[in-house]
């Protein structure tokens, strides 16, 4: 079992990246969120992987954080949600926002993902809502590399823009800012905001 691959990003496709390690290129299917993140780490990237084995196909799927990989694994436990659909969901909804969508039962947001109708969205929420409420089921947000994922600035507007870049609305961002100590460093404000948003 391959836990992770560390190497150079040799190529970026529409739904995959090629990571070169020891002169071998590994084609790894992933989400748009991870592709965006890895574009900034081309020389020394780490991709946490899961090998998917089927009768007619063997492929590697991977993500730039263990948390996103765990969310991917959870999605695949739901009947009717295979590898392709799970990747489609994670490409449409950043995994941090997806956790919040599942917790609050936001069917409408989930149906925006390709191949997800209302019934499937309801089933996903029903089966995963309790699981994502348990932090150890998908990991906490400590392994998110905020410096690389978010352009951190020096005031509240920068925090709002950072949250918007992760898929949250400006209204959500402004509301959660009102619950945070604004004297904290920007990085800490973002972390606390995300923890409040996924509760």
TrEMBL record:
Domain notes: Has three domains with a flexible linker between the domains II and III and assumes an 'L' shape. Domain III is highly mobile and contacts RuvB.
SUPFAM superfamilies reported in the protein's UniProt record: DNA helicase RuvA subunit, C-terminal domain, Nucleic acid-binding proteins, RuvA domain 2-like
GO cellular component: cytoplasm; Holliday junction helicase complex; Holliday junction resolvase complex
NCBIfam families named in the record: ruvA
Described purpose of this protein according to its UniProt entry: The RuvA-RuvB-RuvC complex processes Holliday junction (HJ) DNA during genetic recombination and DNA repair, while the RuvA-RuvB complex plays an important role in the rescue of blocked DNA replication forks via replication fork reversal (RFR). RuvA specifically binds to HJ cruciform DNA, conferring on it an open structure. The RuvB hexamer acts as an ATP-dependent pump, pulling dsDNA into and through the RuvAB complex. HJ branch migration allows RuvC to scan DNA until it finds its consensus sequence, where it cleaves and resolves the cruciform DNA.
UniProt KW keywords: ATP-binding, Cytoplasm, DNA damage, DNA recombination, DNA repair, DNA-binding, Helicase, Hydrolase, Nucleotide-binding
Helix-hairpin-helix DNA-binding motif class domain boundaries: 73-92, 108-127
Protein name per its UniProtKB record: Holliday junction branch migration complex subunit RuvA
Family per similarity comment: Belongs to the RuvA family.
Segments of this protein annotated with the region Domain I: 1-64
